[in-house]
Amino acid sequence: MKWVTMDFEYGFKGTLKAKRGTVPIGIEEGTIEPYDMVFGALGSCLYSTFLDIAVKKKIVYEGVSMKVSGEKRTEVPTTLKTVHVDVVVKNPEKEKGLDQAMRLATEYCSVYQTLSHVAEMSYTLSFEYTDKE
Questions:
Q1: Among 49, 115, 43, 128, which Cα is nearest to 86's?
Q2: C-alpha to C-alpha distance for 90 and 81, rounded to whole angstroms
Q3: In this structure, are strands 80-90 and 63-72 parallel, antiparallel, or unpaired?
Q4: Measured between alpha carbons, how far is 121 from 84 in angstroms, rounded to an integer?
Q5: What domain of life does the native source organism fall in (predicted)?
């Protein structure tokens, strides 16, 4: 079973504690807001799923950068309206295989699928090459 605990002071200042780490919650510098955690959960789930598929396909790359952004609805409840994930793969071996891995990751990532019930989901995948000297 997965779990987290949270402790809050009066006002919006708290701490999220998980089995392997702690995150400060709030609206001040150095803290994470609720949708930061939602977007972080999406990005980490999507990357973990993408990585699993790339490993199974035996496709190697140097690293991945992701930016997750979204827009909330104005009507209550203010669920997400749109979510976009911009993915950049650094120095990949096989672009076509990674295109397929990302498409499959969006199908198998549970957080992506959960959010897709309330938001229009999209992603872009690009590749970046740097000289290795």
A1: 43
A2: 30
A3: antiparallel
A4: 6
A5: Bacteria
| Residue 62: how many other CB atoms lie within 10 Å | 13
Query: For residues 87 and 69, what is the distance between their CA atoms, to the nearest angstrom?
Result: 12
Task: Using pLDDT thresholds of 50, 70 and 90, give the confidence band for residue 131.
Answer: confident
Q: Which runs of E-coded beta strand occur in 27-116?
A: 63-72, 80-90
HEC per residue, 98-127:
HHHHHHHHHHHCHHHHHHCCCCEEEEEEEE
Length of the chain: 133
CB distance 16 to 38 below 8 Å: no
Tokens encoding 103: 């498409």
- Cβ partners under 8 Å of residue 10, min gap 6: none
pTM of the model: 0.93
Neighbouring C-alpha atoms within 13 Å toward the C-beta of 39:
18
Which secondary structure element, helix H or strand E, spans residue 7, and what is its range? strand 4-9
At 19-67, the pLDDT tens digits run 999 999 999 999 999 999 999 999 999 999 999 999 999 999 999 999 9
